[in-house]
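Let us practice reading a record.
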Amino acid sequence: MYFVYLLYNETTKKFYVWVTQNIEKRLIEHVAWKNQSTKYCCKDRKLVYYEYYNHKSDAYTREKKLKHHGKWFISLSPGLAIH
């Protein structure tokens, strides 16, 4: 199973989208800054949304769609609101 997940950085007020097979492990890595690519974006982050897919290609297609469309967060969930 593949997860597309959305993090929100409390400090920068920005959203970040990624794909992983193990969401629990990946969130721990974000907190511990185990990955250089996520070191600065995820210090004050929180998980605000995720979706799961059976196929890797579907997950990466969804990630790309979320990253490259304007107001993509509107399509996620009516209840998703960050203040």
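A brief commentary: Residues 56-68 form the longest helix (13 residues).
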